[in-house]
Amino acid sequence: MSPLRVYGATGYTGRLIVDSACAQGLRPVLGGRSSTRLEPIAAALGLECRVAQLDDPIGLRSALTDIDVVLHAAGPFAATSTPMIEACLATRTHYLDVSGEIETIEAAACRDRDARTAGVMIMPAVGFDVVPSDGLAAHVHRRLPRARRLRLGVSGLVAASRGSVKTLIANAGTPILVRRGGHVRKAPDPTEVHRFDFGYGPREGVLVSWETSRARGTQPESPKSKSTSRRRPSIG
To answer: Which of 34, 170, 208, 226 has the fewest CB atoms lying closer than 10 Å?
Structure first.
């Protein structure tokens, strides 16, 4: 059985994932929607590739029948995650993605019962921007277990993949969301500015929606220089 399939292997993030997997001795099966883009990459790396469209449930399931884990890297995930999750549930394939969109993560959390029934894991948001903030939230909770509010400041994100840019454009003008009392809510003042010191003096950060891990006893709240809150669902 093939251990890993990277779907979206022709994109910027997908290529980074494939290169990293190969460097660690893995031989992922490459997946995507375009054979003309996918096949040359697979041939150059000596890897298997399978083309499947997200709007073709039968073809998508067929491409997963002997796969243990899918790492989904084809955004924007608000449009692409649901069909891949459905295929993973049907074929009992574990699901990972690199999304950072609150709605996508919350939608995955709602599939908890389905994932448990199928005996699979559904774990969205395992990418770079989300995992460090999860780790930071867990670290702060260990150091300050009685804390009730968490603000995270993020700086230095100067580049974005094509999928990330599409997501930013699609979300332009949508409400800023925070998590308070365990629930995702609109920020009471989306124009709020908070000052963070990243080691070279205070800088103002604007509020953005960012689903961050909810440590037990801590309610994350958003301001950030990319600022927000996001829950990491534990599913399946």
So the answer is: 34
